[in-house]
Design a protein that fits this description.
This protein has helices at residues 25-54, 57-64, 76-85, and strands at residues 2-4, 7-8, 14-15, 18-20. It has 110 residues and is mainly α. The protein has two domains: 24-55; 56-110, no CATH class. The strands form two sheets. A two-stranded antiparallel sheet has the order 1-4. A two-stranded antiparallel sheet has the order 2-3. A hairpin with a 5-residue loop joins strand 2 (7-8) and strand 3. It is rod-shaped and about 115 Å long. It starts with a strand and ends in a 25-residue tail after the last helix. Mean pLDDT is 76; it is low at 52-56.
């Protein structure tokens, strides 16, 4: 784009100055192709990044784990055996991280 100065036509009329497209048609079409290519690469990158986050094994395991709380067990031995079956799923049963689940429950049924 460039500014074209005002000028007189051959018939004597005056054309006021204005902005005019000074680029050729072929140059403009090449830019449109680059824009489409850039858009396609961006969309492909977005699709790949979304699929990688949903395929993480940690996300899948977290949703497949049943929820267990201290109230679900009457003894510490029951809680410990559940905790030992899948330590990643039932990490909430071991509050202090020492490997012993629900230390405040009684050891045996009374």
């Amino acid at each position: 784009m460039g500014y074209r100065k005002g000028y007189y036509k051959k018939n004597g009329t005056y054309v006021q100055g204005h902005f005019a497209n000074t680029r050729s048609k072929s140059f403009s079409n090449k830019n449109n192709g680059c824009s489409v290519l850039l858009l396609a690469v961006t969309l492909l990158g977005f699709a790949v990044s979304c699929s990688e986050t949903s395929d993480k094994p940690d996300n899948k395991n977290a949703t497949d784990c049943p929820t267990k709380t201290c109230g679900d067990f009457s003894t510490q031995a029951q809680a410990q055996s559940t905790y030992n079956s899948n330590k990643k799923c039932y990490k909430n049963l071991d509050a202090d991280g020492d490997g012993i689940a629900r230390e405040n429950l009684p050891k045996k049924n009374i």
